[in-house]
Specification:
Blueprint lengths: L1 H4 L4 E3 L8 H14 L2 E5 L11 E2 L2 H6 L3 E2 L2 H17 L3 E4 L4 H12 L4 E5 L1 H5 L21 H13 L4 E2 L11
Parallel strand pairs: 1-2, 2-5, 3-4, 5-6, 6-7
Helix pairs in contact: 2-4, 4-5, 5-7
Length: 175
């Protein structure tokens, strides 16, 4: 209650997915009691762990371990299912796949209290940006396919994705 009184408007897992659903439910339940939003960075920490780009023929050709889109959609599905169960508003951060857009569209059609964002890099870049081992194209979640980019842009136009976020996270030179 002190957090809400101090102006806290949301809880976030800030890039570290809560793998244990029971713990995630407890956090969502606390947020619900306070009437605040849960911001969920959706990525299954065990699926594609250690991957450096999108799992696809491109990652195979480059010899790089990939992260499958399913790592994102599994967690988004979990958040969408739990939101009405726990009477909580959920905001999905960093949407990067067509399948995630489809899940969100279906949830919104059913009246779910879910919002979502994507980042400009997912709209204008795709996994081909990694082809020359360009480390500036290494983001999390990874850049996906051109089809995913097109779906995200359309979802933004249609209101399935509610906002753009830069996801600016400054790092020291050694990082």
């Amino acid at each position: 209650d002190t957090l809400a009184c101090a102006g806290c408007v949301a809880f976030s897992n800030y890039g570290v997915t809560i793998a244990y659903t029971e713990l995630f439910c407890r956090a969502m339940d606390y947020a619900s009691d306070l009437g605040i939003v849960v911001i969920d960075n959706c990525e299954d920490p065990f699926l594609g762990n250690g991957g450096s780009m999108n799992e696809s023929p491109v990652s195979g050709r480059l010899g790089l371990k990939g992260k499958p889109g399913a790592a994102e959609t599994i967690q988004i599905a979990r958040a969408i299912e739990l939101a009405p169960y726990l009477n909580i508003r959920v905001h999905i951060a960093h949407v990067s796949t067509r399948q995630s857009v489809e899940l969100l569209a279906g949830a919104k059609d059913k009246g779910a209290t879910v919002t979502a964002e994507t980042c400009p890099n997912y709209l204008v870049l795709n996994e081909s940006s990694v082809e020359c081992y360009n480390t500036r194209a290494k983001v999390n979640p990874p850049l996906r396919t051109p089809d995913d980019s097109a779906a995200l842009l359309q979802a933004l136009r249609d209101g399935v994705i509610d906002s753009l976020a830069t996801d600016h996270a400054p790092h020291a030179a050694h990082e």
